[in-house]
Amino acid sequence: MILIADSGSTKCDWALISHDSDIRYFSSIGFNPLFHDSEFITNNLLTHPDLLNYSASVETIYYYGTSCSSPVKNGIVENGLKNVFVNAKIFVNHDLTGSVRALCGDEAGIACILGTGSNCCLFDGEKIIQNIPSLGFILGDEGSGAWFGKRLLADYLYRKLPFHLEEEFIETYSIFKEDILNSVYKEPGANVFLASFMPFLQTHSHNTYVRKLMNEGFSDFFEKHIRAYEDSLYLPVHFVGSVAFHFKEFLYEVGSKYFLKIGKVIKTPLEGLIGYHLKNHY
Q1: At 208, is the pLDDT very low, low, confident or very high (cuts 50, 70, 90)?
Q2: Residue 119 included in any domain
Q3: Which one, of 100, 101, 32, 98, lies nearest residue 68 by Cα?
Q4: What domain count does the chain have?
Q5: Strand order in the sheet with 23-29
Q6: pLDDT for 209-261, tens place per residue?
Q7: Would you put residue 61 in left (φ > 0), alpha (ψ -120 to 50) or beta?
Q8: How far is CA 215 from CA 6, 137, 219, 223, in A?
Q9: Helices of type H across 186-247
Q10: Within a domain: residue 20?
């Protein structure tokens, strides 16, 4: 059996594939080695009976995750998994690699992630040849759920939201300054907390304030990341992630201003990764 994992900071999607290509799907919280250690990963997986039922039978794991960008960070995830899937050979890769395999296949293009965080790379059909660094939710993550949540909360606390939107925000969340500052500066997973306000923006996507905010966030992403690639006007620009998927209207709108060829816009890369590994594993 092989197990494929696609993990963002918020959620991890799992696909278990048997030798006869039967597929079972599971989900867990997302793991981020910037914030989670091996023990945390192990302990959380031990609470998932569906995964535990097959833990001894898994032979190979292909794990794609946010912040899995160095041997040290990858080792944190690998060790956490190894404590549960004791018989498995484990391959930990960056979520960007997973997105490229799911979005581009063997065709050249620009692959982008817009979820809790953001990232993108230039793919020549065989390998990633350029990657503008992702700086995380404090310094970067333009166009991500964390970026939009940070802007929304700041405007709320500064009393910059339109009056009726502010009223609805208070009614929806009943959250106060102390709660927000504690969650951002003292609690783990601040990026996930910030991104958790995206459903509010989606509900009010017709609102002038929200439309302006979405345009600013995606423009910032295009300016700092996509425009950095010389071939950006000639290659398809693909997107994966919940923010890209649920706000694709704005992606197309802003992309047209930059004369970009918007290609695939999908919610998760898992289905594409299943196809990739069925082709290349068995």
Answers
A1: very high
A2: no
A3: 32
A4: 1
A5: 23-29, 11-17, 2-7, 60-65, 89-94
A6: 999 999 999 999 999 999 888 888 889 999 998 999 999 999 999 999 989 99
A7: beta
A8: 28, 18, 6, 12
A9: 190-195, 198-203, 208-224, 242-246
A10: yes
**Token pair 């020549």 is at which residue?**
124
- What's at 138, amino acid-wise? I
pLDDT recorded at residue 11: 84
Structure tokens of 199? Answer: 């459903």
Count other Cβ atoms within 10 Å, centred on residue 173: 15
Whole-Å CA distances, 237 to 105, 113, 231, 263: 13, 11, 10, 5
The Cα 37–Cα 90 span in angstroms is: 17
Look up the CATH number of the domain holding residue 22.
Answer: 3.30.420.40
59 within some domain? yes
Q: Residues 189, 190, 191, CA angle at the centre, nearest 5°?
A: 90
**Is residue 29 a part of any domain in this protein?**
yes
Q: For residue 84, what pLDDT is reported?
A: 92
Range of the domain at 6: 2-98+270-280
Show the tokens assigned to 50: 């569906």
pLDDT in tens, 36-61: 889 999 999 999 888 888 888 899 99
Q: In the predicted model, what is the mean pLDDT of residues 87-104? A: 90
